[in-house]
Amino acid sequence: MSLTDIKAKNAKPLEKEYKLTDGFGMFLRVTPKGSKYWQMDYRFEGKQKLFSIGVYPAISLSNARQRRDEAKRLLAQGIDPNAKKQAEVKELKARRGSINRY
Q: Fewer Cβ within 10 Å of end Cβ, the chain: N or C?
């Protein structure tokens, strides 16, 4: 059964970390301190991996699903979503660094 925005909003912290699954590998991880993180399990080149989508509520359920779908499209093309995300962050930092030099 798919996760709803109400279930995500009402997820309370427990003594142990737990997951609320949404489907297609995506879930909301709820920590004992009350933090909530969107993540997705996937396999790439025979290895189990974890893709971090973002923090709830900054990333809504519908936005998290869009990001999950984009990650699935990348996987279908043979691209690791984590590697692409890391390359984008590295490129952004390089651009910021070149702007700050002047």
A: C
**Any idea what the CATH number is for the domain that residue 26 is in?**
3.30.160.390
**Total number of domains in the chain:** 1
- The pTM assigned to this predicted structure is 0.86
Domain range for 12 is: 5-100
* In the chain, beta strands by DSSP E: 18-23, 26-30, 36-44, 47-56
Query: What b/e readout covers 40-72, taking b as 16+ CB neighbours within 10 angstroms?
Result: bebebeeeeeebebeebeebebeebbebbeebb
pLDDT, one tens digit per residue, over 10-66 is 999 999 999 999 989 999 999 999 999 999 999 999 999 999 999 999 999 999 999
